[in-house]
Structures are given as structure tokens and as C-alpha cells.
Write the C-alpha cells for this entry.
Amino acid sequence: MSRSTGFVEIYDSTLRDGAQARGISYSVEDKILIARKLDELGVQYIEGGWPNRTNPGDMEFFVRARNESWKNAKIAAFGSTHRAGASAEQDSNLRFLLDAETEVVTIFGKSWDLHVRDVLKCDLDENLRIIESSVKYLLKHGRRVIYDAEHFFDGCSADPEYALKTIRVAEQAGAEMVVLCDTNGGRLVSEVQRMVEQAKGALSIPFGIHAHNDSGMAVANSIVAVEAGAKQVQGVMNGFGERCGNANLCTIIPTLELKLRRECIGRDRLETLTEVSRFVAELANINHDHRQPYVGESAFAHKGGAHIDAMMKNPHAYEHVDPASVGNARQYLLSQQAGSSAVVHKLERLLPGVDKRDSRVVSLLEKVKRMEFEGYSFEAADASFELLAMRGLKLYTDPFEVVSWRTINRFAANGVADATASGASALESEAIVKVRVRGEIRHTVANGHGPVDALSQALRKALETDFPELADVRLHDYKVRDLSSRAGTAAKVRVLIQSLDHQTGESWGTVGVSENILEASWEALVDSLCYKLMRDRPTRDDGSPLSAGAEPPAPQG
Amino acid sequence: MSRSTGFVEIYDSTLRDGAQARGISYSVEDKILIARKLDELGVQYIEGGWPNRTNPGDMEFFVRARNESWKNAKIAAFGSTHRAGASAEQDSNLRFLLDAETEVVTIFGKSWDLHVRDVLKCDLDENLRIIESSVKYLLKHGRRVIYDAEHFFDGCSADPEYALKTIRVAEQAGAEMVVLCDTNGGRLVSEVQRMVEQAKGALSIPFGIHAHNDSGMAVANSIVAVEAGAKQVQGVMNGFGERCGNANLCTIIPTLELKLRRECIGRDRLETLTEVSRFVAELANINHDHRQPYVGESAFAHKGGAHIDAMMKNPHAYEHVDPASVGNARQYLLSQQAGSSAVVHKLERLLPGVDKRDSRVVSLLEKVKRMEFEGYSFEAADASFELLAMRGLKLYTDPFEVVSWRTINRFAANGVADATASGASALESEAIVKVRVRGEIRHTVANGHGPVDALSQALRKALETDFPELADVRLHDYKVRDLSSRAGTAAKVRVLIQSLDHQTGESWGTVGVSENILEASWEALVDSLCYKLMRDRPTRDDGSPLSAGAEPPAPQG
């Protein structure tokens, strides 16, 4: 790799523009935790919020941020130019920006004549005066000012002369950087390339780019702007944001570092990107997008058999960068198309040094193939695969035995399903479970929201005394697939359960297949709990403990 | 809007490259249903699969596709050039391609020297001969050939002379189109712009683009290729695909139509794009990405207060295109005014000329909104929507009434679940159903492969004497979606049932939502049978028959 070809600043707006996303509302505590992670990641600016009367939480963040020690990032406050028909000195929004007490303030102003006329409802010259006096006011109070030219590209398309005038006014008033915004996210790469050149010609201070993803081009627009000379990229972790989201910094940062060879956070910290990306998704309470470039769980997951064969021959064959460079990992998904090379690879990770000619390994591979033919899919069920392997290689035995179960589900239109139904519900699901633990029978009954939940409740009740750690396990995703029209599987269903250990945050997937949805669910349910027990109390057949951790000794042939 | 500036072909690979996505495995029936939707949408090519020994389902699709009548699309079979060290005549993969009996065959060959040496393991000249003889072989057998230049951009970066030679060979051998592929998805817009020009200089036949999204640039790379002259875009609905996915046709198509003014599916059909996008996600059993450009639920959802204020003043303020142009709707998240224009659109199709001010229509719209909030989705459940509308407008009444149902499911490890269990099975599902038909109670019991099948059998048994036509209905797909991570729906599941009339070949979808999987299934099950009864014996409230067919008279206000 050649050396860096220049520096690009990362301006993170996860806590401000990113918080405009549907379904996201960060607490002040969330914001502090995220800001610390971003600081460790090495971004240059963290936009903390828009402090004003209607966002008290944002002001509280700035107060708390003052007492934190930031290693890499500057905290920036965000707000708008002052209102039309008033002066900067009278404007409460600008006062709030000063109250945030940040070294850097970012204000946005209007570049698009449509917005000046229809939204600000003032004339074009007044908007220029507003930009000038807002920037000057903040400078007078000792702030560094970044000027966000809202709707720059739409403005530049409608009335280029006026749009360019607005950013020249910001420069002349003393802004240190002008950021060109595709606020509506509708601009194409070719338009951004052209208009960035126009802006460059009009400015003598550095410029940045702020793009939205409404045309699916936020990342590309950011990158072409950098190629044209932009010194700052504004964006959001995971691309969260209003509508279709903001430019995704988790895609832009590695592209800058690895492909354009522009330094922004540095190669070492780049290796923590996947972790930070997933951390932000957790705090946002949004599922991490497994298809996300670079940092997604599937970003380096190979499924097609031909692809996997080629990857074994040369890892560059179907990977654009080394997954380790962003802290991600290669995966070979187990699927019908994948043949058995993926299974061997997975087994090798589970049991390093395993002997592939060992008869137990051979028969395990055959079993996996047979199960896949029957409709099992282990690509989202790593835990079931691990259990299958450990049971097959006699490295683990389930500490309980299922004797019987049944579920009864009643519905009555008159509102009383059964005397035992709770409340006025017309519907009741009940499960009865009998298991044998250490030679003793546990016989329990429970209700649930549906038969699977009832089975889960009754099974936990049967095991809770012997294995209190099972209380930590939550079933947090349940999927059913109909396999009836799939060759070789008559009228079968496949159930996938995703479980979460709410103490450790670890999650795992288990699978069950049957003609009967309840039997398939039961199978995935039992594996879910067995996996927790195996992780916590590994034992051999003879009852002696296994060496702890993910790497038990390899069986010898 | 100015007039079209030229035509661009859409080549859809949802069923082939899109099926490489993690978690996707379509049944043959799914593939037929999706292909029909794509044909209605107006794409020019539907790539049906890769017919070979390891994909029997793909060959079955091609057999079934022959008996369908396609209005707009040509079905294409996909495969590779023949193996190194063999001749085209001996190659089983090419034979399978002919067996698919499609007018168009797409084959991919190697452009990247690394792949020729390390994956094909042959010399560079032999690869050229392989490309030539594979294309010629298919032409000799009367096929039109599209040549996919796999890894073209990586090859063009490593050894441009050789990469260009490979595509010239394909042209000289008789391919009608060369498609430049960014197979690893790692290329930047600026690189694609440069290398497309190189390819253009080397070819005299039209070229296309096939991009993957590993750098988040698949859409932008496709669009810049079209701006540089590409006549075909290959992609996948919703961007599904291996790793980070393929170029998203749901973003590319509207960008071509609305922004580049290139005709591909036409403005009228563009208005069905949102519906088709959601339909494909439903059949893939993958949550529809709400942030997806143009077609996502949040794509035109405004949350920021300032944005909403501005939108009220001028709808162009924060929208890059009119949401109706792609069949989507504007939403204001703060005011909770979710747009119902999609429903109005659907209702208008069902009852042309319906009066939107009719109080029954107004209350129907409110009901649909409430149900969607609760987790219902009618995208793949037209029959449930039609029943809801017809019941709500008092144009249809169910000819039976559910009194009660129950299911009992028993499992025993010793192999005898219950004295009544048939044979040696350890598992038994039994359902008891009580319905009222024409004032009389029908009380039945039946076994089934699982509780849903048992309920279905018992319900049919209860209705078969009165409605013998129900014997024609098969439940041929059953899907369950967990809604627990969706805001506003705690621990709910959505069940989708696809039914087929095996006399007429007609199929329809129904939906149920509940915390209890059996209740949700029952709801979809009842709708499935009611739809058949409504189609065959339409009646008004007063018992008089409705006019037959899909267009009953519009209610008068």
C-alpha cells in the first residue's frame, strides 16, 4: 500500500442528524456513551445536538460533555442562522448555541431560493445579510464557525449564481469551512461532481460535504466530493438519519482509508470500526444491518458454492478488502449451494487442528449433509451446528432428557375459552412438559402467548431449579419458513430462534425442522437452552469438565 | 418534465444472484409468483436461475416458466462458460443451459487474470478460447447470448489489455451484449467512469452494468455507467444478494425514469414499484427495509419539526421526488398522520369509481390504518384486503360463523403419544372445530401434520357438505414473521398463507396477526376459504347475488 495522500476530517452527526431517524430517541446517557466511543474511534468532530428551547436533552448533553475529557474529537453545537426580521443579538437560537460553550459551532443557512422565499419567507438579499450577521456574531463571541450550506446542490441547480453568493458571504463573514449539503438527498454523482467544482471556484477556504441517501448515493456523493478536494465529510454511523438516512460513515471511513488512502482515523483505529458500528446500533435499539458494507455480519459472508471454492484458492477472489482491516471476519455460510467446504471450515474454527479423517468427523459431515437435505439450514443457526458437532464428537451431552410434552390451545367466539383461561380472553395456550434431570422427573405446566411461548415457559419451569442460569436467556426472534414446495421435503417447516443472554449480551441462533411446527419449534427451543448450558457448564460424556472457552481439545484419530 | 432521453433495459436477477443472499431460499412456487410480479412491473429480462445438477429447483422453474404467458419480460437462463480442458460440446453446464429452453442465455466468463490463473487454473489464452467456444456453442443452438464479464473492473485495473481482450472475444464470437461486472463490489464511481470509457472504446455492441454493493456504491456505479452509455442494468429488487447485496433495482429504476429521463418500465408502472418491492420482501421472508430509497416506509417520512413545517409550506422543501410517482406516500411522524393513499389506490382498483367521501369508505380506510399499525400487511395478502373491503362495505357476508376451535398436540419420547395417535408416531396434532352454517352447528375433529394443518382439515370437514367447492383449495405456502422488534407490536406474529385453486390455477394470499401463532394462522386460514366462497358465490347482505368477477358495482354515497 502506498502512503497517505492527504488528510480528511470526519464530522460525526450521529447524535444530531442521526437522531432524526424513525424509531431513534437517545437518552442523554446514551449520547455520552456514544460520544465516548466516537472519540476513541478517532473522529475529529462530534456534533452533540441542536441546543434550543424544544431540545432540553441536547443542552444537557453539552453541559455533561464539558466535564468529559475528549482525546481526539471536538464537540460541536449545531443550529441555524438567526430568524428573518430580527438581529443576531436578539435571536434566542444563537444565544442557545453560545450557551452550549463549545469551541466549534456549526450553523446552517439557506442556499436555495425556493427555501428563502417559501420557508424563510424573506427576500434573497435579506437571507445574505442573515448569513453574514449570524456568522459574525458567533465569531465575535470567540467561536470557530463551520457553515453548512443547506440544500446547496438544489440551490445550485435552481439558481447557481445565488447559491454561490450565499457561500461566499459565509466565507467573507469569517466561517472557516463551508459544507455543501445535499439536504434532500436527491442529487446524482454527476451533478455533485459538477457543482462541487463550481463551489471550489467560488471559495478560498476549505469545503466539506454533507449528503443524504434518498437516491442511494450518499456514500458515492461524499467520496466524489473528497476526490474533488473536500476536506471534511459529515455523516452518521450506520447511515442512520431522517427518511433514507445520512451518508454512512461506516462505509466512508474505510473507503477513504483503504481505497483513496486519505488518512482520517488511522489504520489502527479502523480495526475497531465494526465494534463501534454495532455498539451504536445497540444503543439506538435498531437491528444492525447485516448487509452493511465493511461492518455488516454478511459483508464478508460467502454462500454460493462456486464462490466458496474460489475463496479457498485465493481470498482476493471475492473480497474487495481484508475483513480484518475493519475488524470484521470472513464467514462461509452453510447452505445447500455451499457444498461441504463451508462445514469443514466452520468445524476447523470450532476445533482447531481437528483431523478431517477422524471417523467421527466424517460421520458428522455426512449427518450435516443429510440434515441440510431434510431442510435444516445452519447459516443463521451457529449454536445448533456447534451442539450437533459437540454431541456428535461426544464432547458434550445434554444434562436433561425430554420425556414428553403437549400443548392445548382453545378459542371460543363467546369470549370464554375455558374455565382456566385468565381474564376475559377468548384464547388460551397451555403447555405441559415432562423432563428427566439427574434421574428425576420434572413435570410442569404453564400458559403462554401462543403454544411456543407456553412450551418455552413450561420447559424453563421444569429446568429452573437445576439450572438457574437459564433465567438469563431471552428468545428475541422467531422465524418460520415453509419448506413444502422444496424438493425432498414434503410439507415441512423450518423454525429459527435467535436467543439472547441478557447478562452477557451474547446472542445465538438455533434451528428445528419438522412437518409439525410445534415439533420444529420445540427442537430449536431445546437447542437454545442447551447451548447456554454447554457454554456455562461444559462436560464430557464421563461428566468431567471440558477445558473452558471456545476451543476444546481436538479429538485424535 | 422533458421527454425520454433514451431507453435502458432492466435485467432482473432477483431469482438468481438475489437468491445468494443470506437467509433467502425461494421455493419454485415463490419464484413463479415473483416472476409474474416482475413481468407486470415491466422489466425486460428475468434471470430465472442457474440450471445445473446441484440446483434441481432452478431447472424446475424453467420448466414451469414455459407454460406461463409473459407479457413484458424474457426469461433468461444463467450459467458459466465451459470448463477448462474440455470442449463446449462435452460440457454438462452448457447442456443444462440449453435444456432450460430459454430464448436468451446469459453466461459469465473471466476478465481478471488472477481468476484465470488461481480459480480456473488455466493460461490466459485458453480462457479466451473458452469464452469464444462457449458463446459460439450457444449461438449455434439458436440462443441469444448476453455475456457477463465477471470481475471486469478488477481485471481492467490489474491488466486492462487482457480484460478488454476478453470482452472483444465475446463480441467477436457473437454475443449481443457485454455486461461489465463489479463482482466484488469494491470499485469507486471514478474508477467505473474511467473503465467504462475503456470498454466502450473496445466494443461495437451495446454494453450493460452489473454492480455489487460492497463499497455502498452499487447504485451510483450503475447510474454513472448509464450516463456513459450503458444500455442494460442488471440488479435485484430491494438490493438483495450475497454479502452486501446487488445493485438495488428499486432505487435504480426510479432514478432512471425520474432523474435521467430514460425510459425503462414507464411512468405508469413505476407507480406499482413500492408494492412490488414489498411483495418480493414478503416472499423472501425478509423485513422490508424502511429506509430504502423511494420505496421504504420511511423514504418520505418527515420527523424533524422544522422539516415538517417547511413541508407544509412547500412539499418540494424536503422531498427529492413526488412519493406518488413510485406508489409510496408521505408521512409526518410527529403528527402520526400515516398516509393512506396506497389503500385508496388499492380500493380504486377493486371498485372503480368508488366514492371516497362515502362514510363506509372513510371508516374502512381508518380500519386499514389501525390494522397496519397493529402489524397487518396487505402487500402479499390481496385476498384479505378484498374481503376486508367487501365485508366493510357490506357487499359480502361470510356464509359461516366460527363458534370455537381447539388444538391438542402431544409428543412422547417413548413413541406412543396417545392411544388415538395413528401408527407408531410419537407426535400427534388434533383439532376440534365448531362452526355455525345456516343456523346449524357443525362440530368436527381431525388430525394433521401440525396444529395448523389439523385446524385446516377440521374446518374443511365442517364446511365440506355445504361448500363442496372448498375441496379445490390447497394451502401451498405458509409464512410466519416475528413482529416483536417493530414499534407498537409487542411479541406479535404475522402469518401469511398463499392458497391455490387447483382447478383454475388461481392463487391468493391471506394474512392474520396475533400474539398467538395459532390465532394468526386461523385468521389467515378462514380468510383463505372465505375468499374462495366469495369468488364462487358472491352475495349481498340481503342474500342476492353480486355481479360476478373482479369488479362489483361501486357503492353509491
Remarks:
- The CA atoms of residues 429 and 449 of chain A lie 7 Å apart.
